[in-house]
Write a structure and sequence with these properties.
Distance between the termini: 46 Å
Structural class: alpha/beta
Order of helices and strands: EEHEEEHHEHHEHEHEEEHEH
Number of strands: 12
Radius of gyration: 18 Å
Strand content: 15-25%
Largest sheet: 10 strands, mixed
């Protein structure tokens, strides 16, 4: 059932399928430049990757699992009539906590999938006291929309994640945050919220925080598409020209990340890194050997979250 108002929403408890990765499909190959399709195929093949999940990302004896909820949401203000599948993960004890932090993951099923296992990371780090109580909101793009320029398709992903305005942040805050609050006491402190994404999701995560630092104080971007898709290439320049905003940024790219018709993602991330340093942001840029996948992201996520929330955990 689809819901568009928090008073009517019912969250269904479901099992986590760590193998159920959500892949972003390009439109018919007829519309996609052959070089781009080949680049994506090559860079996403990380079967021989040097990056592997650590024990922080795998089930541990004595660490209780949380609850994983699913609901279908039809936007009623920002993207009227567009429906998405959304998942909410509450580590053990979250419902009783006086206040909880939040991690929002765009292309959410990819982050609960086997390459990252973000819910297990939350379980382990919260249990060990290395992370404040933090719940996860895993958002999947709207299922109907104009698709991508050139690449085509029929989803709302590019509109939501690549458009450089505050619409998607407003959608999260005004439409989905009230749903979270039906289950937990969500912190009002932007320093307790991190928004995370891969590729277009990485651009969307940064855009949301840049426009609404009052809501998102932290960003994690994996292979962020800060390239010429609906204006995301303008973000480094916007960072340089605006006063520094109170957001902490961790982003990565790799040697085998893609160089496509919209731009070169490694170069775009280097440009963003330079802009963040120019404005003296609290930022970390990691450049590895991986491609346009979540292999490096998954291996790095536990340490990334420790870095993001380092001010909120007492030294042990």
């Amino acid at each position: 059932m689809r819901y568009s108002h928090v008073d009517n929403v019912e969250l269904e408890v479901v099992d986590i399928d760590h193998w159920g990765m959500a892949e972003v499909e390009l439109a018919d190959e007829h519309f996609v430049p052959s070089k781009d399709a080949a680049m994506f195929e090559l860079s996403e093949d990380d079967t021989g990757s040097e990056y592997h999940l650590t024990s922080d990302s795998l089930p541990q004896h004595g660490v209780p699992e949380g609850k994983y909820f699913h609901f279908r949401w039809t936007s009623h203000t920002v993207y009227p009539g567009v429906t998405s599948s959304v998942y909410l993960y509450l580590p053990h004890g979250a419902e009783e906590a006086e206040s909880v932090n939040l991690m929002v993951c765009l292309d959410g099923l990819s982050y609960t999938g086997e390459q990252v296992r973000a819910t297990t990371v939350l379980d382990n780090l919260v249990h060990k006291g290395e992370l404040p109580m933090t719940v996860g909101l895993f958002h999947n793009p709207g299922e109907t929309g104009p698709g991508y320029p050139i690449y085509g398709g029929s989803t709302n992903r590019a509109v939501e994640y690549d458009t450089v305005n505050e619409d998607f942040a407003r959608y999260l805050v005004d439409e989905l945050f009230p749903v979270i609050r039906t289950k937990v006491k969500l912190t009002d402190d932007p320093k307790g919220r991190v928004i995370c994404g891969h590729s277009s999701g990485g651009a969307g995560a940064f855009t949301a925080a840049f426009h609404r630092p009052d809501q998102f104080g932290n960003v994690i971007s994996h292979c962020g598409s800060f390239i010429s898709i609906r204006g995301a290439n303008n973000l480094p320049g916007m960072v340089r020209q605006a006063p520094r905003k109170p957001i902490r940024v961790w982003h990565l790219s790799g040697e085998r990340d893609v160089d496509i018709i919209y731009g070169n993602i490694p170069i775009a991330n280097q440009d963003l890194d330079a802009a963040l340093k120019y404005r003296r942001y609290d930022s970390m840029y990691v450049f590895g050997t991986g491609g346009h996948s979540l292999s490096h992201a998954g291996a790095a996520l536990p340490e990334t979250l420790r870095w993001i929330f380092r001010d909120q955990v007492e030294d042990k």
